[in-house]
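Hello K.,

You asked for the raw outputs rather than the summary table, so here they are, unedited. I folded two proteins back to back in the same session to keep the settings identical. This is the first:
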Amino acid sequence: MVRLACSSKIEQRWQCPDSGWVKINVDGSVSTNNNKAAIGGAVRNSYGEWLTGFNMVTGIDEIFKIEARVIVEGMKLAWLKGYKQVEINCDNVMLIDTICNGFASISNIAEV
């Protein structure tokens, strides 16, 4: 059974996830100069040790969609590596709020 727990909090510094969990720190950026975006993330265990990471260049899009994609790619990687208890750290508060509230606050969420 998959359990989804969602919360939003401000971290002053990086904090390890609970024992048995991994944390994925993700971010995306957009360059209007060359019409590209980049996404990436790092997966760490409850001791703060680096387990794996990813990065990729994508086409330019709205930052909301870019950061939604980085979460999806991070989750895909985590599950592929066998990590099922995953905490996501993302700086896009609107996106986290949208995910936590069942995507109800955005009418065009299907585009993401």
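The second followed immediately with the same parameters:
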Amino acid sequence: MPYRDAELELLIGAGKDGDQTYAVEARYRQPAGDTYSDPMPLTLSPSDLSFHDANPEVCGRALARQLFNAQEIRDVFVGARTLAQNNGGDLRVTTEASALHSLPWETLFDPDGQRPLAVTERCYLSRYLYARDMRLPKLGVRRQSSALVAIANPSDLDDNLAPVDAARELAQIRRHFGNTIQLEPPLVEAGQASMDRISQALRDGVDILYLVCHGMLDNGEPVLMVENLAGQAEPVRGELFVRRIAMLDRPPRCARSPAG
């Protein structure tokens, strides 16, 4: 099936020389035909201090230097970006190495280190994982899509974590959804954005779960900072969160979490 727009995919697989050596190859799909690069060695260390710097520019430039170190990968990316600026297109970074999910991909700079890729109006950044639940969504009568918004702003956040402005976040969500998405009663008051309350609200069936909360990594495992019933921080492991949602009879078809 031909692609309407160009798509560049950078695939990162495990290498042969230990945990910090990988192989990267580029697949450039376009209506005129596909282009493939040979696998190139790639060295990425999740423990590199540059990737954990408080300045996102330091993280983004360090990641770009290592990812685009191979000239062939740089050339394919620059060519794909040039065409995408005129015709539209997607960039996907796919990794089979779980350790690399902890890297700050949101801060990635362009190969020249001049600007971050994810701060332009033409860039829509999203992390996603393949679902373990292979059930197909139940299709009903065509209707307007619905969304549940949950915004967690625990009262006892660590000093290193900025408070979440729930009113501002909800206003932005309403503006972006407009009249195309029907919003269910949002969970934004203190103690509402808990794991139990979110699960209960999802039982009636919605198409989209939009969760706003802080997140972190604990020994490489994602943790979501939701609330308990008293409005205080309640860390929930990402795997548990996903499992609870997957157990629902009608899980949402799409879940998004712009966590910080």
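Residues 6-119 form one domain.

Happy to rerun anything if the numbers look odd on your end.

Regards,
P.
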